[in-house]
Write a structure and sequence with these properties.
The chain is 40% helix and 16% strand. The protein has 860 residues and is an alpha/beta fold. The protein has 6 domains: 135 residues, Rossmann fold (3-Layer(aba) Sandwich); 106 residues, P-loop containing nucleotide triphosphate hydrolases (Rossmann fold), CATH 3.40.50; 163 residues, P-loop containing nucleotide triphosphate hydrolases (Rossmann fold, 3-Layer(aba) Sandwich); 79 residues, no CATH class; 135 residues, no CATH class; 185 residues, Elongation Factor Tu (Ef-tu), domain 3, CATH 2.40.30.300. The strands form 4 sheets. It has an 11-stranded mixed beta sheet with strand order 1-2-3-11-4-10-9-5-8-6-7, with helices on both faces. Strands 13-12-20-17-14-16-15 form a 7-stranded mixed beta sheet. Helix 15 links the parallel strand 15 and strand 16. Helix 5 crosses helix 6, helix 19 runs antiparallel to helix 27 and helix 21 packs antiparallel against helix 25. The protein is globular and about 90 Å long. It starts with 24 loop residues before the first strand and ends in a 6-residue tail after the last helix. The N terminus is likely disordered.
Length: 860
Amino acid sequence: MEEVENTSKRKAPELDSEDSSAAAVMNGHQSLPGSAAKRQNLARSCIHEVAAPNGYDLSKDEAVHGTLSNPVFNGDMAKTYPFQLDPFQTVSIACLERNESVLVSAHTSAGKTAIAEYAIAMSFRDKQRVIYTSPLKALSNQKYRELSQEFSDVGLMTGDVTLQPNATCLVMTTEILRGMLYRGSEVIKEVGWVIFDEIHYMKDRERGVVWEESIVFLPPAIKMVFLSATMSNATEFAEWICNLHKQPCHVVYTDFRPTPLQHYVFPIGGSGLYLVVDENGQFREDNFLKLQDTFAKQPSQLDGKKSGGPKASGRIAKGGNASGTSDIYRIVKMIMERKFQPVIIFSFSRRECEHHAMSMSKLDFNTEEEKDSIEQVFRSAIFCLSEEDRGLPAIELMLPLLKRGIAVHHSGLLPIIKELVELLFQEGLVKALFATETFAMGLNMPAKTVVFTSVKKWDGDSNRFIGSGEYIQMSGRAGRRGKDERGICVIMIDEQMEMSVIKDMVLGKPAPLISTFRLSYYTILNLLSRAEGQFTAEHVIRNSFHQFQYEKALPEVVQKITRLENEASLLGSSGENDLAEYHKLGLDISELEKKIMSEMIRPERALLYLVPGRLVKVRDGSTDWGWGVVVNVVKKPPASSSLPPALSASRNNNYIVDTLLHCSSSLSESGLRSKPCPPRPGEKGEMHVVPVPLPLVCGLSSIRISIPSDLRPPEARQNILFAVQELGKRYPQGLPKLNPITDMGIEEPELVDLVHKLEDLEQKLCSHPLHKSDQSEQQLSWYQRKAELNHEIQQLKSKMRDSQLQKFRDELKNRSRVLKILGHIDADGVLQLKGHAACLIDTGDELLVTELMFNGTCLI
């Protein structure tokens, strides 16, 4: 068996102290000598750490098992492999043979499944039962098929299907395991190991609590195997397990990728692929600059003739239509011509998946023999359906796609269709698969190439760039171990991106695992159904990963408060009352101006005044652009949006004001300014046409200046800059603005009242003693900084006062009151019939479903 090379390097993680033993005890457990040390294999970067409880018995035969900080195994293997194990696999198996829990953090397709299989083989050898949990039914089904080929006695429990529930190895979803723990299943008493696949799913806002509750309720005698994609706080997670179950938990981490990846970027509407990260993980800055040039050379989508130079827009046409369909067609066709299939094309909405797949109607990737095989498998799969169900559009439309080697996979498909697609993809009969990101959640279906149709996704709150962890998970599907020399990732982008953004996404560290623990009615009802009742509810809260992270962060909070208080004390307090009054007047005026401007820039009012030459003030969040000059106003064409209708329907957002703004002329670190930004203090800068969304206009001046018809010459734009600067000198108190009442003729009583209030406040501000003081700006800046410090100090102190445990107690009390009103529990907190029924509803809204059942609205 291959041994991991040991180095003399021994250091406690995340500690600055020279003596690591000074930090040996943390959060109720002890890191034994060397247990927090990192052992690194220089070739494949295998790192091992361990957290162990105080007084842990170290009585193991070192000749066979090594030590806690340096585990090895020299005994008879429970399972042998036809290949040489990687270092991280060797160390993980040694930890398992010590009968101790282990968290394995590695890239997709690195070989984590081999460790899970070894834990199962150990259970068969030791006559124990083992549970394998996964976050998805599809993944559970796949693991059941794979493990059934490897082991003789395997069962499946997913809620939809139950096969051999008395088997030695049970594959199930995590929700099923939680239900078994709540109900005190006899099976748990026979379990020696529980394997949690895709444990990083615990940070999911909706379902993450399921993992925490399952781990909390597992008996301490059961050992656990956690399989995870790379995460940055694996040690913290191991410390929680150690603190919770009073047992060691090892961490084995590797960033080794068996099949190296090449990352290309394709500019939508452009041509060619640009290698930005090579197979050695090196960022190719020269290619990135060439990529940026393709955007700069494209004419502005708004008004090419009036573009203020190559840096004006940062956006290019999307080639064909707004969804970029023709570009995807070209990429898929190129991939097939170069024999880079199979390919997975990731989109972030079901509709886009289906639309892109249907746009491949002219492409056919399968031979006649393969088409016959597909049709035969398809007919066999749907044979179990009724005649009526076989005629459903979702089924009828899939066969023509499948026969051409194209398929769609997302959560909206019928389960039988998803399983069919997965089977055909594994057999190599599907060459191009259009899928959502859920396909990357653990399904062992690698491809040679992965394509991202967008780098932004709607996460329920905002339309944001995908994180490094998400990118690692999906891009990890590229490259088949033992088949491909390298995997290929293609990223489609439709706008200029900062170099730091693409670097963070492709090469950045994954986000830490942050607990999303929350109380739900399902949790409370099931906790009350147990004998311990209310005590058990607090037990779960107190032992959650959420509470552990909160308590661990408290010492850092105390240090930060002390640092902020010291900084605030240095700012002094003389004249603070006058400053507070003056500052409040400024805030009140700013708030009123925002309200008035929101009414003034409504398209039906503002478009009449947003004519070429009008001076407008622009602010983008904290970035103040100052005054610019209107060049043109255009209405954006309707385009498919990933935003919900309620958030994408604002009429103001449909208009773009092409505005000449004073921009920085200096180059960024990359050698090219990819995004316009205001000039730094003292910088001369230059004028460029910048597309400004209408809501970012925060001021309309009554002044208009003449502008030339051709703004391409730098001299023409520079003359406008001089004119704007001259107007600033002529009006030192600020340029005159359009009055919404007298100039724009708005007569709404609410707006008139706001304007009068604004005039009164401006008069008070002008008459304030500090307004004419030479040091007013400096004093105000000092006061604002001190106010910010005091506000942050109060927030941190409030965080310390408000115990998370107490918050959950209050929430528990309020939710229990609701349950009493609805009749799920009585006045003494004892479960009633409705409560028992709700306990059995593992998915969906348990309260709603129960109410519908008991009201006779629906029958289940």
